[in-house]
Amino acid sequence: MAKTTLHTLLEQKRSGEKFTCLTSYDATHAHLVSTQGTEIILVGDSLGNVVQGRESTVPVTMADMVYHTNCVRRGNTEAMIMSDIPFMACSTPEQTYANATELMQAGAEVIKLEGGAWLCDTVRGLSERGIPTCLHLGLTPQSVSMLGGYKVQGRDEESAARMLEDARLLEEAGANILLLECVPSPLAQEITRNASIPVIGIGAGAETDGQVLVLYDMLGMTHGRKPRFVKDFMAEASTPAEAIATFVKDVKEGRFPAPEHGFSA
Length: 265
Hints:
Order of helices and strands: HEHEHHEHEHEHHEHEEHH
Largest sheet: 8 strands, parallel, barrel
Function: Catalyzes the reversible reaction in which hydroxymethyl group from 5,10-methylenetetrahydrofolate is transferred onto alpha-ketoisovalerate to form ketopantoate.
GO molecular function: 3-methyl-2-oxobutanoate hydroxymethyltransferase activity
Pfam families: Pantoate_transf
Helix content: 40-55%
Pathway: Cofactor biosynthesis; (R)-pantothenate biosynthesis; (R)-pantoate from 3-methyl-2-oxobutanoate: step 1/2
Protein name: 3-methyl-2-oxobutanoate hydroxymethyltransferase
């Protein structure tokens, strides 16, 4: 497989070919994920939960993100690397520019930010400086305290309209990718159809352009309650490589996510 770029994802969106994204936090898993056909590796601040054993992503620092991005870069082959800016590390445009620079120099090719239209000026500034962005809408784990827990977002008319408008404004500001988490499937489908940039979903139905899962979740290593949108691909696989390859194939052939992995309005 050729190296994945933003152009690759745009071509896949235009042709209707689904793409995949999995988290990785170290060189070994990055090599495994990138050699099984996954287009994007997300160095997510979810490392706070699955690597550090924390209750949320809030304690994750920029030093953590830079360290793990460096590790992933060393193991990656063909995938595009996308890294999170952690909690309160994008409070101002200037702070975000500095932190995005660190992540890009560590090996990230796209910077992921959690938030809506309030980030438009920052996204515009990053785009002008040649730094691609992915904007995370819906359930944003860094804001889980404000959201009242891990709940589906965009179920009422007002919040759905706000998310649609945020998506439009962020694309206009220069965002390169959108990521929708725990969003009703019909709303995610509408956002995807309206956007000319690729849209990734997690718990957002099957109509987004791509799908992302936390690697530990899809390998059946989740502790405690399993999120509704997760499928254990290790259940019928003999190796992690086989499980990842099946995930990629099932997304591309429309078998995952199934209706039971999404949410209604």
